[in-house]
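Our example pasted here:


***
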Amino acid sequence: MRHTNDKPHVCEVCHKAFYKKGALNAHLSSHTDEKPHQCEVCQKAFTKKFSLLVHLRIHTEEELQKYYKEISEKILHAKKQTCACDICGKEFPKNSRLARHKLTHSSEKPQCEECGKICSNKYLLRDHLFTHTGGKALACEICGKRFIEMWHLRSHLQSHSEKMSYECEVCHKTFAQKATLQIHFLTHTNEKSHVCEICHKTFARKSNLQTHFLTHTKEKPHVCEVCCKAFTQKGSLKAHFLIHTNEKPHVCEICHKLFAQKSNLEAHFLTHTKEKPYNCEVCHKAFPQISVLRSHIHTHTKEKPHVCEICHKGFARKQYLQSHYFTHTEEKPHVCGLCNKGFITKGHLNIHMNVKHS
């Protein structure tokens, strides 16, 4: 196999080189005529998974919503399925809980080596051993009493007044836990003690730093089970999943239009108020959304942050990159209704309509 300095992965059939092994593997299917990635809506098949994802855009929103709803219902149904004990018939939501339960039917009972006490299963034995080691690591913040298990501590906290809370001296907001109040207080002092080691950006909360760090590692650990889209934050995944279930809980008070995500409602609301709160510091042009402003700023900096994974060409805006991908899949999703000629972009179709059919 031949190698190049820039593209180490070379096709043994045609000697075309690639930056990534995954790209080479996808390319190899073009020699075998295999098309393993099939559209569930129209059954059209593709050699690359990416080509399938791009192709899905040609279907109407109604077709996709119907398909995604069917898939999400199957997933939700699978999640609701329970595991039943074959001895007593008791049902459990997870296999791990069923396995733990089955130990109660076992004739062998684990025994404590310290005091000889017999426990019904190994998990209760583990909890019992703490009584010998003194490992009561969880302390009540109110009275100082210590516990082995978190659920013991939570039950104990209910014995204190349910009205007990920690109040912020600045804004008088109340919190159930002292630690939560301490984190909140940093928003008033403007302290940001958690520093990113890569870009040195600071954060008040460690959790915010951890989420930010994923922007450097490019990790997106939260993946949608329906369309495989990945997200850095679990909350973003939950908001995205509403697209598939067709839930739209956020309602515009003016026109009653429904939205799946609160951020989309907020952006829509500006169309009624005509507000454009985000201003470009270079040319002072105003925009209704910060994402649109960020895309606009690239026209001044000449940055092209959206890079094609296939040919590495850069683009200032994400939608330009998405249109560019059609040049690789050789799809032309915008079709003229009069002569059936296809075009990569809607703009090219409009030009065609004006020139040929006007």
DSSP finds 13 helices and 22 strands in the chain. The mean pLDDT is 73. The longest helix spans residues 61-80. The two ends are 55 Å apart (CA to CA).
